[in-house]
Amino acid sequence: MSEPSLRVLSVVSELYPWVKTGGLADVAGALPGALAAEGVAMRTLIPGYPAMLAALPATGVAVHDFASLFGAPARLLAAEVDGLGLFVLDAPHLYARAGSPYAGPDGQDFADNAQRFAALARVGEQIGGGLVAGFVPDVVHAHDWQAGLTPAYLRLASGRRPPSVMTVHNLAFQGQFPAGLLAALGLPPESYGIEGVEYYGAIGFLKAGLRYADRITTVSPSYAAEICTPAGGMGLDGLLQARRDVLHGILNGIDEAVWNPASDPHLPEPFSATRRAGRAVCKAALQARFGLDRDPDALVFGVVSRLTWQKGMDLLLQAVPALLGQGAQLAVLGAGEPALVGGFAAAAAATPGRVGTAIGYEEAIAHLVQGGADALLVPSRFEPCGLTQLCALRYGALPVVARSGGLADTVIDANAAALAQQVATGLQFAPNSLPALEQAIGRAAGLWRQPAQWQRIQRNAMRCDVGWRGPAGAYAALYRAMAAEAG
Ligand code: ADP
Ligand code: GLC
């Protein structure tokens, strides 16, 4: 490596493969490995949820003891697991709980989420300040609202601290908490203002990160532009617009080892861009798993998604009759809003053999859908980046996507010009409305009836570079610029 090694601390609330509610975990898990090739040594600070502590090897050591961290003692553990350098914050009073990282088994957010994630951010700030002699970061990288106070604590600390970058994975989740918690969170009174952590009469964790970070990134160029507008800014567009000069859109990649159809243990038969025959076996397995008629000629649409309004799943539910009218089948893997879960279950019950569902979070089935479906539907109302369409490209399930955020940046629509140039990789539709979605489904069905055309698009899709090399290079350049500025 010609460039000198740079140390970066990643502060994040999810980490694949141990703790995941969405793409944030995938990104946090894959980026460090890709950065190593760029001469960047990244370590990840993550709360000590039960699943994280269980993943630690006996070689994990306590590198710091906190006499009191937000109300009780805590320890910072360091370990290397599966090639990832980890700092795990072992604070049982904050993290030793059943449920998701954010909510209990009843689905209710934990009442002390402000303290739980302020503690994470505070420890991130302290590692930035040299708490662990063996790893003093040159840059601190905070992800989403859960890490949003990190840039604030770094900037407000006395003494020298490294510069920070705040990444927005989803502006819809902002982490707002009562103003009365200011002192309890260790924030100085003067930070409570429009130029600080204040956000419409509350403390905004994401707002704080966006205000105090030296750089802001989000996960696609289109989303970077969208969040600077009133329509996409969710109340933060003024701040983001004002900081446009330090806001960058860097696309996500996918982990090409985890998502590789040639070696995927979840597929009944491997395949690749040049040897696609195994796909037919995967399609038959998918149809069997979802209770669909075993018809190799039926166009199978797949879905791998949170079942939410953001993901446009209500629109898709309304489009089911049109989809069936095209003679297609639908396989839905997802979890989320009860009304949508019930809606898809009812559609499956009403049309056996044509619509099938798998409700829940099922990693193995996600791979089977990508490997066996002919097309993947992603009708999101907004999509910062989206990872499932990247997996779909690699697995040859043609993505049919709303023209929004990262979806717009990663799929080339099969319009006449793109088909003529043989560069199409999927279908886009806009606006995100029921007629436009139905029309896109109809266009997909039309292409399906032209097998040579379909296969050309599939080949293009599978040849797309959806890995982390390019994005990691962009992050490395950003970190280096920040470190150089900081001197
Ligand atoms: P988001 O983070 O907004 O949910 P992304 O497309 O960025 O959307 O990432 C979603 C990630 O979660 C992908 O890795 C996808 O495969 C996975 N995923 C989503 N729903 C499920 C599910 N029900 N079962 C298994 N994996 C899922
Ligand atoms: C968020 C976004 C998604 C993005 C992911 C990882 O969950 O909703 O679009 O791909 O973060 O950055």
Q: How is this structure best described in words?
A:
The protein is of the alpha/beta class and 487 residues long. The protein folds into two domains: 6-253 and 469-486, Rossmann fold (3-Layer(aba) Sandwich), CATH 3.40.50; 278-462, 3-Layer(aba) Sandwich (Rossmann fold), CATH 3.40.50.2000. 37% of the residues lie in helices and 20% in strands. The strands form three sheets. The chain has a nine-stranded mixed sheet, sandwiched between helices. A six-stranded parallel sheet has the order 15-14-13-16-17-18, with helices on both faces. A three-stranded antiparallel sheet has the order 8-10-9. Strand 4 and strand 5 (84-90) form a beta hairpin. The radius of gyration is 23 Å and the shape is globular. The protein starts with 5 loop residues before the first strand and ends with a helix. The structure holds adenosine-5'-diphosphate and alpha-D-glucopyranose.
Strand share of the residues? Answer: 15-25%
Using the 3D structure, state the CATH architecture of the largest domain. 3-Layer(aba) Sandwich
Counting H and I runs of at least 4 residues, what is the number of helices?
Answer: 18
How do the strands line up in the largest sheet?
3-4-5-2-1-6-7-11-12
Number of domains: 2
CA-CA gap between termini: 21 Å
Number of strands: 18
- Quote the average pLDDT: 97
The main β sheet shows up as: 9 strands, mixed
Compounds present? adenosine-5'-diphosphate, alpha-D-glucopyranose
| CATH homology-level superfamily of the largest domain | Glycogen Phosphorylase B
